[in-house]
Amino acid sequence: MIPFLPLQRINARQREQLAAAALRVLDSGWYVLGPEVRAFEAEFAAWNGSRHCIGVANGLDALTLVLHAWKTACGWEDGDEVMVTANTYIASVLAITANRLRPVLVEPDAFYNLDPDALGAALTPRCRAVLVVHLYGQAAAMGPITEFCGRHGLKLLEDCAQAHGAALDGKKAGAFGDAAGFSFYPGKNLGALGDAGAVTTDCDELADTLRALRNYGSHVKYHNLMRGVNSRLDEIHAAFLREKLPLVDADNAERRNIARIYLEEIRHPLVSLPGVRGGPESHVWHLFVIRSRMRDDLARHLAARGVETMLHYPIPPHRQKCYMDEFGMLDLPETEAIHREVLSLPLWPGMTGEQAREVVDAVNSWSPE
């Protein structure tokens, strides 16, 4: 059996370090917004190439709080628009609607990311921002997207939940836009042992606002400057993340090696492989996603061969029940085809070449019914 993502096995590599980190926090007596959070924020900002990192409770909160801060500071109105990739995970869209802003869903390019050539047609006078998602671990086309936002006076927010360490010309995802949201959900390339997230930004004012917003709107206890929320990165998760951060670059290199085997050796005529834009550093392979019009039959075949797979994602946001009133019968054919056809193969740091080739053999041996 080749599991999709054996988190216990992955974390067992650092069992002693993680246990020591937990004891360090336990013995400190400081469990919320303490020295571990401050240290991780500084270390992650330096690693990512950003001036500030603000730890929050999860990746959704990271995006939601940034949009909230901008809406308040910039005088955006309810119903103002944010353009976002149509085939993203629903969290990207939830962050927009949570702020009573309107998502404008834009079809993706051939790399499953926001198509910069489609932005002009989607632009209206009420558009205020672009939320670009580095989906599956591949950095989006940040050059033309950044230029478009600058030309039209739009804020640029990066959703880096799946792209820790992805880079274009030496610059990491999360350092291109006005701000970026990261998730440290356990399955991410940099994952805590529970929910956790962060915002990166070079804007001093935004960073200061977010540090208050995440803490009930307060910099000083019992002095509330704004209507905030409780969205704080816990000390225990910050301590775990500090132990795991030094492994991310090496882990991403291992992911690239497994992806290379898949790209070179999967040759089934009914399976489409993912493309890579730019150099190898542009993709950190959070997910290795193939496509087939007979996806479900392929998944059954792989399961019978002992290969665990997953769907990322089976239903696009505009077809979710919670958004039917918002989007109605919106026609997004490329997004809908993606969600019908995608299948994610196992890929994780520590996976061996032999295991990868077992997956390859299982895919190549598929005979559709």
In short:
The chain is α/β, with parallel strands linked by helices and 369 residues long. The protein has 14 helices and 13 strands.
Largest sheet: 7 strands, mixed
User: N-to-C terminal Cα separation, in Å?
Assistant: 23 Å
Outline:
globular
Total number of helices: 14
Numbering strands along the chain, what is their spatial order in the largest sheet? Answer: 1-9-8-5-4-2-3
Low-confidence stretches: none
SS-derived structural category:
alpha/beta
Order of helices and strands: HHHEHEHEHEHEEEEEHEEHHEHHHEH
Radius of gyration: 21 Å
DSSP strand content:
5-15%
**Percent helix:** 25-40%
Kindly state the number of beta strands. 13
Mean pLDDT: 97
Task: Write a structural description.
The chain is 40% helix and 15% strand. The chain is α/β, with parallel strands linked by helices and 369 residues long. Strand 4, helix 7 and strand 5 form a beta-alpha-beta unit. Helix 2 packs antiparallel against helix 9 and helix 3 runs parallel beside helix 9.
